[in-house]
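Quick one, T. Sequence first:
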Amino acid sequence: MIMTETPAVWNARMLKNHTKGWHMLVYICAGILRYNKGSIVEIGMGASTIELAHLARIAEVTLYSCDLMMGGMFKAFNDKLFPDHICFIGKSEDFIKQFEGEPSIAFIDGQHDYEVVKMEGDFLLEKLKTGGVLFMHDTFPPSERLTAPNPKPHDVYKYRQELERNPDYDVFTWPYSSVNMGLTMVMKHRKDRPYWLKNGRQ
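Structure tokens:
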């Protein structure tokens, strides 16, 4: 599947299939890996995993994927996608207990409620390399119906709002990206560039 694609073939497929939702995430991650090479961590497997695996393979970094089942709820794949793809099958809280890496990129798209995403996000933001970036999906739902607490919580946007109020982070959200549910990018302020630390905020 993806492992046989050349960069040119992959790029053409991404352009052709950009409406599937992950082109924004993939192109930004490609740039991050070029300038800040490090592992990738994702919580929640799916179609995005296939694209992140391609990036990780080309950059020769490890991809760590966590989900309750291999390939995620939509069974996007049945086995690890390349030799340095480490899959953890289980709850994110158990994955967090044993993860000791320092990734350049982290992506959260697992359980879609505030409490769980906050636990995952706070942990991953602490683990990121300097200049590393955290991405989160489902942060800007297009309708109030998609934020309703029943039958299960769907309030990732609350964690986005919390981070937006925190002067230690830069936060940017594309509301129409990633299956129209919103993709948020979070970066900790670079301590080696102290003149930007407050980012204009007092």
